[in-house]
Amino acid sequence: MNIGLKIGTRGDALGVARAQPVASALGAEIVIIASEVDRSSSSRSLEGLDSSVDALRDAILTGEVDAVVHAYSDLPVALTGRSIAAVPRRADVRDALYAHDGTPLAELPPGSRVGAGSPLRRAQLLSRRSDLEVVELLGNAEYGLGQVDSNGAERHLDAVVLAAADLDVLGRLDAATEYLGIDGWPTSPAQGAIAIETRVGDEKLVSKLDHKSSRLTADAERAVLALLEGHRVAPIGAHAILDDGLLFLSARAYRDDGSEQLTSSHALYPEDSSDPVGELSRRVADELLAGGASGFAQ
């Protein structure tokens, strides 16, 4: 048991539930870290999420905690002053649709209000169903479920797209009307992965939780995102798998309105490269850029 080890997390139910198995495995104490936005308002905006991530990361440097637990997909691609010390075994990477009456995406009536929290999900919805009213979801999975669960005039959404992994953490897999297949619906880079961050040099505190293939696939997805973000390409979905020793990476860039998309897929054996993540992500990003993905930015 790591006597005195402190693990920081956000104070919402999703953040605490995500951190609990990490703390249990390490014999550590959970410490709730509140951001200025958390303290001053009920903001559910992207700014609020960024503020929460920043507050967690600052708590490492100040020594308030020894490590923090993030959804890996929430982290900025440029990390400085801290280290991703462990990526535990990855959960379900797929998105799921939750509709109040159990109707799958293809059968939702035209004009249905469907919430999605990222530009990627909104572009994907519009690419499939341009007749829907796609609404920006300013909140986490708990909030999204509540927007659909409410009755009558209190119901603001007919359906919502959420990460299957978040539903699992919340114990709400029963809410999944439909799982969206990863081939046709690549998700946010590193979705379903947890990142445990420490100060540089303190990685051994949590390194026993690192799962090699989960880290490799999540890192490959984030690497292609980093390369494309530098060219203002968004939204971007990515999916990597390690199968029989072969690392396969696919990424898809969308126009915001879903009217156009480009896909690139490449693979290599990690032992054949001194930098498999860098080499593979560069191949994928270069092909997308050559195909005109940088012109998708608004």
Structure, described:
By secondary structure, the chain is of the alpha/beta class. The chain has eight helices and 13 strands. The chain has helices spanning 13-26, 36-40, 46-61, 119-128, 141-149, 164-169, 212-229, 276-290; strands spanning 6-9, 29-32, 67-71, 82-86, 95-99, 113-116, 133-136, 159-163, 178-180, 194-199, 236-243, 246-254, 261-268. The chain has a five-stranded mixed β-sheet, sandwiched between helices. A five-stranded mixed β-sheet has the order 7-6-8-5-9, with helices on both faces. Helix 7 runs parallel beside helix 8. The chain starts with 5 loop residues before the first strand and ends in an 8-residue tail after the last helix. 43% of the residues are buried. Mean pLDDT is 91; it is low at 39-46.
Topology:
Elements: E1 6-9, H1 13-26, E2 29-32, H2 36-40, H3 46-61, E3 67-71, E4 82-86, E5 95-99, E6 113-116, H4 119-128, E7 133-136, H5 141-149, E8 159-163, H6 164-169, E9 178-180, E10 194-199, H7 212-229, E11 236-243, E12 246-254, E13 261-268, H8 276-290
Parallel strand pairs: 1-2, 1-3, 6-7, 6-8
Antiparallel strand pairs: 3-10, 4-10, 5-8, 5-9, 11-12, 12-13
Helix pairs in contact: 7-8
Indicate the radius of gyration in whole angstroms: 19 Å
**Overall pLDDT confidence:** 91
Beta content: 15-25%
The number of distinct β-strands equals 13
Percent helix: 25-40%
Q: Based on Cα principal axes, name the global outline.
A: globular
**Helix/strand-derived class?**
alpha/beta
Strand ordering within the main sheet = 2-1-3-10-4
Number of helices: 8
| pLDDT < 50 runs, ≥5 residues | 39-46
Largest sheet: 5 strands, mixed
N-to-C series of helices and strands: EHEHHEEEEHEHEHEEHEEEH
Distance between the termini: 51 Å
